[in-house]
Specification:
Strand order of the largest sheet: 3-2-6-7-8-9-1-10
Helix content: 25-40%
Radius of gyration: 22 Å
Number of helices: 11
Structural class: alpha+beta
Distance between the termini: 59 Å
Shape: globular
Strand content: 15-25%
Number of domains: 2
Number of strands: 12
Length: about 350
């Protein structure tokens, strides 16, 4: 069902939801940018529709709501283990189509890649998603080529327009709260983009032979291995485990799951002093092929959703989309060398 509401009425809806939900959306963080006197768009709890940033892409994704940066899995003592309680409230998250597609990737990794991850599932089951329509793409977005510019997998959609706030509701439990406050009922189709300034081409003949290409060597010197691209990516899932022992009792503590990065030193260290992918070029190769080759071979869709955040955040101006577009010439190089 579609509804047209005013800003005042939407705030009334948010106030009604807050009884049962924590509401997250991209919001402005003044002076929160990486450089001095710059702002950041980050996901955080909001109280009003006016706090939501609709006209800029968020610098960080929604990911930390489902996958906390540091998450306590259990507490331990000498003779007991106890899991922390689940959050009391459910959550509502405002996000764009590309990020909703990213949720599907996370679900595949944590719920369908073998046994279910119980820590992810208990958060995931408590979340509802509201789609933020996109009137236009941003400079580094390439969602159309990744087929993530549209989605139907939302509980409701919300677009701002001159006539009011346009809502497409798919959750029957919310019909009453919208209908009792709406200015008009009508069919609503969420905004979506049909073209982007940035384009990518993944060659049809892409294979693991691309690992032999010299295209990866450039990243040995260009990439500094900071891992920022992984941390802003909505589909990166690498983590490490940390056991924290309390100083007042060295036999008690907690185990935490903490974000990690395949691009940083130490991630591939193994027992005995060995380490895989020591060079940054090798790490870049692993990341790119994971995003646009092997994940699709296993799951039928690319892992990358084309949000472009990795391009935006890289301090060395390395473009992931440009790297994808080098794959075709990389395959030609390999084939010519073997011919």
């Amino acid at each position: 069902m579609g509804y047209i509401l005013g800003l005042k009425e939407i705030d009334e809806v948010l106030l009604h939801w807050k009884k049962d939900y924590v509401i997250y959306a991209p919001k402005l963080i003044p002076d929160g940018g990486a450089c001095s006197d710059t702002d950041s768009i980050h996901y955080g709890e909001i109280q009003s529709i006016e706090e939501i940033v609709f006209d800029r892409k968020s610098d960080f994704s929604f990911k930390e709501i489902l996958l906390p940066i540091s998450e306590t899995l259990f507490y331990f003592t000498e003779d007991s283990v106890m899991e922390p309680a689940a959050p009391e409230k459910q959550a509502i998250v405002f996000l764009r189509s590309c990020d909703l597609h990213a949720v599907k990737r996370l679900d595949t990794m944590y719920l369908h890649n073998g046994g279910e991850d119980p820590y992810y599932k208990r958060l995931r089951d408590r979340v509802k998603f509201i789609l933020m329509g996109c009137e236009e793409s941003y400079e580094s977005c390439f969602c159309v080529d990744m087929e993530t510019n549209r989605t139907e997998d939302y509980h409701a959609s919300l677009d701002l327009s001159e006539e009011g706030v346009r809502i497409d509701n798919k959750n029957p439990d919310w019909d009453e709260v919208f209908a009792s406050r709406c200015l008009e009922e009508r069919d609503v189709i969420p905004n979506y983009v049909t073209e982007t300034e940035t384009r990518v081409n993944i060659p049809d003949n892409l294979s693991l032979d691309i690992m032999k290409s010299t295209m990866w060597n450039q990243y040995d010197s260009r990439c500094i291995g900071c891992g920022r691209c992984n941390f802003v990516c909505p589909t990166c899932t690498c983590f490490t485990m940390q056991d924290i022992f309390y100083t007042d009792n060295g036999k008690a503590g907690e185990r935490r799951r903490v974000w990690a990065s395949c691009m940083t030193d130490g991630f591939t260290d193994v027992a005995g002093g060995g380490s895989y992918r020591k060079n940054n070029g090798q790490r870049m190769r692993f990341k790119v092929l994971h995003k646009v080759y092997d994940y699709k071979k296993r799951n039928g869709i690319h892992m990358c959703v084309g949000c472009g955040r990795c391009d935006d955040v890289c301090p060395e101006y390395i473009s992931f989309s440009h790297c994808i577009n080098q794959l075709e010439n990389g395959m030609k190089e390999v084939n010519e060398h073997e011919a």
